[in-house]
Amino acid sequence: MKCCHQRPQHPRPNNSGSADRRFVWGLRSVDDLILRDDTSLRLYALSDAMGSVTAVVNTSATVQERYGYDGFGAPRYMDGSFGSRGSSSYAWETLFDGYRYDLESGLYQVRYRYLHPKLGRWPNRDPINELGFNLLIRGQNPFNIEEEKNLYAFVRNNPVSFLDFLGLKKQVTGVKWCAGGKHQWIEYPGGSAGYYPKNDTIGNCIWGPGQVVNPDPHVGDEDKKCTDIKLDTSCYDLDKFKTCVEKKSQPKTGGTPYSVFGYNCANWVATVIKNCKEEAKK
């Protein structure tokens, strides 16, 4: 199942072959759970921006249970008033990033692989390095790949920034989110851009016209740190993403006013990446 295909309804059969639970899925992502029905109770899932379920509510919109996670998804269970629980009172299985959590093993089922949240890694190696997988599934030369040497790493140890719906890998787009000092900007193949106040005065920094500057003056900073923007090619067209970023990085004045307290350089970078990801969806 590709990560950009949705599952409107999914029953879970019991030993007798009839469904004891039904799941309804949304359109925001492949793991966008809307509700779960069992034989006596309907619960709606509330999720954060990463797709992790943070609470479930009943048909009266009363919170029945809440969930928290450590950096790699080990779950913490709480009641509706944030009181600690040792386990889920509802055997709730859709948790971190919308992955299915196996209560017996403590592992997340992420399609091609399992995720071990306590270790912060996959227990099994990435099939990217398997000859048959590459030739039959990806149509790639397995001996000419740009991938981390560690075939067990989960999203480059950065689960706050990246998702992996299939248990495979993220593809480098060539677009980078860079920061140096108090400024943040975008670098893309052949260029760079950042968002600045039109006139560099105290008044305009607080609130005033903004402008996209290309190339960004901070590209050559020695202390800069850049993060590669990676996308899953099953869901995104990388060429469309790069073209969109380059288009939105062209010099221009106007648009949303610049403000150090609101829409500033960091917000501009985040907005460009978010909007271009939407445009590049397959």
Description of the molecule:
- By secondary structure, the chain is α+β, with helices and mostly antiparallel strands.
- It folds into 2 domains: about 10-115, no CATH class; about 170-280, no CATH class.
- It is about 15% helix and about 30% strand.
- The protein has 4 helices and 17 strands.
- The protein has helices at about 130-140, 200-205, 240-250, 265-280, and strands at about 10-15, 20-25, 35-40, 40-45, 55, 65-70, 75-80, 85, 100, 105-110, 115, 170-180, 185-190, 190-195, 210-215, 225-230, 250-255.
- An 8-stranded antiparallel β-sheet has the order 1-2-3-4-5-6-7-8, with no helix packed on it. A 6-stranded antiparallel β-sheet has the order 16-12-13-14-15-17. Strands 9-10-11 form a 3-stranded antiparallel β-sheet, with no helix packed on it.
- A hairpin with a 5-residue loop joins strand 1 (about 10-15) and strand 2 (about 20-25).
- Helix 3 (about 240-250) runs antiparallel to helix 4.
- The chain is elongated.
- The model is unreliable at about 1-5 and about 130-150 (pLDDT under 50).
Summarize the structure.
This protein is an alpha+beta fold.
How would you write the strand order of the largest sheet? 1-2-3-4-5-6-7-8
Share of helix, binned: 10-25%
Query: What sort of overall outline do the alpha carbons produce when their principal axes are compared?
Result: elongated
What distance separates the N and C termini? 14 Å
Query: What is the tally of helical segments?
Result: 4
Strand content: 25-35%
Spans where pLDDT lies below 50 across 5 or more residues: 1-6, 131-148
The main sheet comes to:
8 strands, antiparallel
Helix/strand class:
alpha+beta
Indicate the radius of gyration in whole angstroms. Answer: 22 Å
SSE string: EEEEEEEEEEEHEEEHEEHEH
Number of strands: 17
What is the typical, i.e. mean, pLDDT?
79
Number of domains: 2
